[in-house]
């Protein structure tokens, strides 16, 4: 079977959640003996099994919807038709017209739903005012992605000064969604990466072909590091990107309350990148910024963290940082958003709270104020390693085998 994985928008070796996952899956499928190729964005290292294509008219992350590039569309379709099975992961370079053509001309394809790009042009289900959407309301989308928002220059200025553009409603998002529905509906199988992703997609595009399938993560093959003790304090660690939708304001509220009550049994450490305005504020409240890190640093970084902290306010699909913490023996404090609840069980391998529920938030603060290393150790005892990329690859191949021509 000749398999093509599609992960456009970025070079194949880009260090990002979806590209990291696809590389691990492809490596595992090659080891299983399959003839595997990849369609990715232009750039990065060259691989003999990777095709690189990029539209000259379509900019990833633009709200300039319904752009057509007929040459690119035909080139992509010609390539897809050379394979027995197409597995789509990320299509941010694909215009909706191309997705509609794929639904009509490609007989055998599956889709992994890692993000919300197909149903939310802004991807994060966070609207033009930074308000979180928990389900898709296409009428709201028509307002959120209005006429002025589709002008890349105006949107860039708007984002820079922090002032939303005036609303001029149009039905372009609704037209786009109509084409994408055909693309999703005609897939042989659809793999949401968490139950919440499945719920959100199924609400707007109902189908019997959804199969929730948690991905594998390479940290499942890594040894659990010994913890570095730091003066008896509990080190709460954050990894990755810190922004408003990633829970920066939640963290500000937590650190403000802990500082007010002079709680000194905790330290919050952050490794990664953050919006400067949030980072400056958080550091002033006691956050210790440890700089950026790479995947090669991960074991050493996590060895200095007693309990992870992952508190997005958006419906984060299935954060791999949660998987990394758990696989490296570290319990996690997490918000009840997106796919986090698929992996964290409250007071078993971590602590769950709803960031907008004042009772749950205050309960979490009270728990934090009294937390000890023994409490963390008990939660660590409840952790079990998650799926490896190899286990996941075998599952995916088994699902491929159920597809009828």
Automatic annotation (TrEMBL):
Pfam families per the UniProt record, alphabetical: Glyco_transf_4, Glycos_transf_1
GO molecular function: glycosyltransferase activity
Ranges in a coiled coil: none
Domain Glycosyltransferase subfamily 4-like N-terminal residue range list: 16-118
Domain Glycosyl transferase family: 227-370
Domain of life of the organism encoding this protein: Bacteria
Entry-linked PANTHER family: SULFOQUINOVOSYL TRANSFERASE SQD2, TRANSFERASE
Protein name (record): Glycosyltransferase
Gene source species: Limnobaculum xujianqingii
Species classification: Bacteria, Pseudomonadati, Pseudomonadota, Gammaproteobacteria, Enterobacterales
């Amino acid at each position: 079977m000749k398999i093509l994985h599609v992960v456009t928008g970025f070079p194949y070796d880009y260090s990002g959640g979806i590209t990291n996952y696809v590389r691990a899956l492809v490596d595992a499928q090659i080891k299983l003996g399959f003839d595997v190729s990849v369609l990715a964005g232009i750039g990065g290292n060259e691989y003999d099994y990777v095709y690189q294509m990029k539209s000259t008219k379509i900019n990833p992350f633009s709200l300039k919807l319904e752009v057509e590039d007929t040459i690119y569309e035909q080139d992509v379709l010609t390539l897809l038709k050379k394979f027995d099975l197409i597995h789509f992961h990320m299509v941010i370079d694909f215009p909706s017209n191309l997705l509609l053509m794929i639904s009509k001309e490609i007989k055998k394809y599956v889709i992994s739903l890692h993000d919300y790009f197909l149903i939310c042009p802004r991807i994060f289900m966070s609207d033009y005012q930074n308000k979180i959407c928990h389900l898709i309301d296409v009428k709201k989308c028509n307002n959120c992605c209005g006429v002025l928002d589709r002008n890349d220059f105006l949107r860039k200025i708007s984002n820079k000064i922090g002032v939303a553009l005036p609303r001029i409603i149009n039905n372009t998002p609704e037209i786009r969604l109509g084409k994408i529905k055909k693309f999703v509906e005609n897939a042989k199988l659809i793999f949401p990466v968490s139950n919440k992703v499945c719920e959100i997609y199924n609400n707007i595009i109902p189908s019997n072909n959804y199969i929730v399938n948690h991905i594998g993560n390479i940290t499942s093959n890594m040894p659990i590091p010994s913890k570095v003790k730091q003066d008896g304090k509990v080190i709460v660690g954050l990894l990755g990107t810190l922004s408003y939708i990633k829970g920066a304001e939640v963290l500000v509220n937590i650190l403000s309350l802990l500082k007010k009550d002079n709680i000194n049994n905790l330290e919050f450490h952050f490794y990664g990148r953050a919006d400067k305005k949030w980072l400056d504020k958080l550091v002033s409240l006691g956050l210790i910024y440890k700089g950026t890190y790479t995947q090669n640093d991960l074991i050493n970084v996590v060895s200095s963290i007693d309990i992870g902290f992952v508190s997005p306010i958006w419906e984060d699909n299935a954060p791999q940082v949660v998987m990394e913490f758990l696989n490296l023996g570290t319990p996690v404090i997490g918000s009840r958003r997106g796919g986090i609840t698929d992996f964290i069980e409250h007071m078993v391998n971590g602590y769950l709270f709803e960031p907008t529920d004042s009772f749950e938030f205050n309960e979490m603060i009270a728990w934090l104020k009294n937390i000890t290393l023994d409490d963390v150790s008990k939660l660590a005892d409840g952790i079990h390693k998650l799926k490896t990329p190899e286990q996941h690859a075998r599952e995916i191949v088994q699902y491929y085998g159920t597809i009828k021509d």
